[in-house]
Amino acid sequence: MQGRDGTLKDFAIPPQVTPADVERLLAVLARGARRIERVELSSGAVWIKRYGRKRALVGMRAQNALARLFRQPFLRASPRLAPSAMVGREIRRIALFRERGLPVPHVLYRSAGAVVLSDAGSTVSMRLAALRTSDPVAHEDLLVACAADLGALHGKGLCHGRPHPRDFFLENGRIGFMDFEEEPEAVMPLAMAQARDLWLLFLQLTQRALEGDATLDRAFAAWETAAPAAARRELGALVGFLGKFLSLTRLIGRMHMGSDLRRFLAATRYLSRVCEIPRPAGASKAGKDD
Ligand SMILES: Nc1ncnc2c1ncn2[C@@H]1O[C@H](COP(=O)(O)OP(=O)(O)O)[C@@H](O)[C@H]1O
Ligand SMILES: [Mg+2]
């Protein structure tokens, strides 16, 4: 929790949490069933997050092998840590983001393999789903806000690692962030990690924008205004590299256009255009034939 003096008082159980709440929380923690669990307490909801059961080692090794093969550090996986170190990483990153003035959940409790976080409310994903039909203009504005606030975060010398609307929330009109399991800047330069962040966000934005390029252009401009020039330069290099795969991916897509492929094509094609990367022959219709 954040103390009055602005210092971090993590792990303090808030005073409104009753003994019955503590009992309930401990019971859920001990049961250790699901990785992420929402628990209703008398004072509101909290979230339990457990570590160390998700990422297959083999997938991570394959990712790092690809990074070596292509000599592209941005492909590297974040270092794999033991569960207690994963807890440490998440807490350290939450504290860092809070220090730089960004909305993040409060850490209420930590154990060797789990954290308990305050409820951040509806995620941006949930809000987008509701706005899509009820208020398309607000929907597009929220997509732009995601890019603008990601740029602001980059401008503060940070990177998220896996930006996705399901890990964003709104606090007083600003985008808040959660899910800090990745730490790409530990295995690549910060500007490269920030460029990777932007590309990852655009995998989502290109799929979600109702107004297509009109919204994407606004989103990109908002990111670019706030983000460091070095991140923008790295983005050119990253998209230049990924752009080489457009025609190949399109070919694969003729046989099977899965959602990952569709996102890759749409985001890479859009960002190649913005970054003015010359397109390989045959890539002009990439991603349009699904
Ligand atoms: N503190 C929180 N407040 C609100 N929702 C949360 C909170 N923590 C997790 N969630 C929900 O659970 C989902 C998964 O949690 P997350 O930390 O992103 O773990 P994962 O590594 O599985 O993505 C989030 O996308 C969000 O919907
Ligand atoms: Mg997540």
What is this structure, in a nutshell?
With 290 residues, the protein is of the alpha+beta class. Helix content is 51%, strand content 10%.
Key descriptive features of the protein:
2 domains, alpha+beta, disordered N terminus, 290 residues, Phosphorylase Kinase, domain 1, disordered C terminus, 4-stranded antiparallel β-sheet, binds magnesium ion, 10% strand, 10 helices, binds adenosine-5'-diphosphate
User: Over the alpha carbons, how many angstroms does the gyration radius reach?
Assistant: 20 Å
Shape: globular
Task: Give the helix/strand class.
Answer: alpha+beta
Strand content: 5-15%
- Residue-averaged pLDDT, rounded? 85
The number of helical elements comes to: 10
Distinct ligand kinds:
adenosine-5'-diphosphate, magnesium ion
Biggest sheet features: 4 strands, antiparallel
Give a verbal description of the structure.
By secondary structure, the chain is α+β, with helices and mostly antiparallel strands. It folds into two domains: 19-50 and 81-118, Phosphorylase Kinase, domain 1 (2-Layer Sandwich), CATH 3.30.200; 124-274, no CATH class. 51% of the residues lie in helices and 10% in strands. It has ten helices and six strands, in the order αββααββααββααααα. The protein has helices at 19-31, 57-69, 83-99, 124-134, 136-155, 190-208, 213-226, 229-243, 246-255, 259-274, and strands at 36-41, 44-50, 107-110, 114-118, 168-171, 174-177. The strands form two sheets. Strands 1-2-4-3 form a four-stranded antiparallel beta sheet, sandwiched between helices. β1 (36-41) and β2 form a beta hairpin. The N and C termini lie far apart (48 Å). Bound molecules: adenosine-5'-diphosphate and magnesium ion. Magnesium ion binds at residues 166-167, 179.
